[in-house]
Design goal:
two-stranded parallel ribbon; 327 residues; 64% helix; globular; mainly alpha; 17 helices
């Protein structure tokens, strides 16, 4: 059984970009996004417009994950055209590329550490720390991890967290966060004034609302699921964090395409240089990657993930509210 550094080295053959595939998936995804957004705005039939609006939401999620690969320098590195496209897209998604890359790189370097800043991650408290926390600290912790926060991620995680909070923390460093937010909502106002509320709702608001909600939950469930392991900083290592603390989300072919294989999250955390379109290939070739901890988008699995609240060091597992108050 390959473990640790040997397992990471075994993934290296798959950490090679196939340039034409990167361009093909990027361009076709952008074109489909533009097409569905246009359809949501210009078709006469309301049901067809709604279908296009939903399609635009799914494609925003897909292109965001491709953008995420680009930010890892996994695909299209060194391309001026790709840099322009993804910079514009990051701004459009109210995800300033600079703040996203810094926070996401921190997440990869510290994923599943019990005592680390929750930059780019959902916070984790131990049961003991939670019980010792003030009411305000408990409320803030539970609020961030609450389903309502994920449902309204367009406003909470992205508009506030990515833009307002980062700007307030360091206005000089994160001036682009404020500029991104102002530009985003300026576009929204323009669409309302120029084309009306319905067109704004179908081409802009609904696609963003759905895609950000989906993204927030996916990111949560990939690191907060039954069986996840968190370690003290001294016991932490990169490969353990990938295999023990990152899930494989088993999705149907449509959702696997929409999410650009981000469900193979344990492999992505083991080696972030593997392009999204080669993750299934790596899993099929390396037996050690096929024993991942699995979750899905079935309602029962969603509920099982969402009920987890704190890390219980004695039981060595995440527990829910009932267990936390009665243990």
């Amino acid at each position: 059984m390959l473990t640790g550094k040997e397992l990471i080295l075994a993934t290296k053959p798959f950490a090679k970009e196939i340039r034409w595939k990167s361009w093909y998936y990027t361009i076709t995804s952008f074109l489909l996004l533009i097409g569905t957004t246009a359809g949501a705005g210009y078709f006469d039939n309301i049901w067809l417009r709604l279908l296009c609006s939903f399609g635009a939401a799914m494609l925003l999620a897909r292109v965001f994950i491709i953008f995420h690969d680009y930010q890892h320098h996994t695909i299209l590195r060194g391309s001026v055209i790709a840099d322009f496209m993804f910079t514009v897209f990051g701004i459009y998604m109210i995800t300033p590329p600079n703040i996203w890359k810094r926070s996401h790189d921190h997440h990869h370097a510290h994923n599943a550490k019990l005592f680390s800043a929750s930059i780019g991650s959902y916070p984790i408290m131990t049961r003991q720390k939670f019980l010792e926390a003030t009411k305000a600290e408990r409320f803030g912790y539970l609020a961030v991890r609450h389903p309502i926060n994920m449902f309204f991620a367009y406003f909470t995680t992205f508009s506030y967290g990515m833009c307002i909070q980062s700007f307030l923390s360091s206005p000089r460093r994160h001036w682009d966060s404020l500029a991104t937010l102002l530009l985003h909502y300026t576009i929204a106002v323009f669409l309302i004034i120029k084309f009306g509320w319905l067109t704004w709702f179908l081409t802009f608001f609904l696609p963003f609302f759905i895609s950000h909600m989906l993204g927030a939950y996916l990111f949560y469930a990939q690191h907060n699921f039954p069986g996840v392991i968190f370690r003290k900083n001294a016991d932490w290592n990169y490969s353990y964090a990938a295999l023990e603390s990152s899930s494989f989300m088993d999705l149907n072919p449509f959702m696997q395409w929409v999410t650009a294989n981000i469900g193979f999250h344990h492999i992505h955390h083991l080696n972030a240089k593997i392009p999204f379109y080669r993750l299934p290939e790596a899993m099929a070739a390396i037996p050690e990657l096929q024993t991942a901890k699995v979750t899905t988008l079935k309602p029962s699995d969603i509920v099982a993930c969402l009920r987890l609240k704190v890390w219980d060091a004695e039981q060595n597992k995440m527990i829910g509210w009932d267990e936390m108050t009665t243990a």
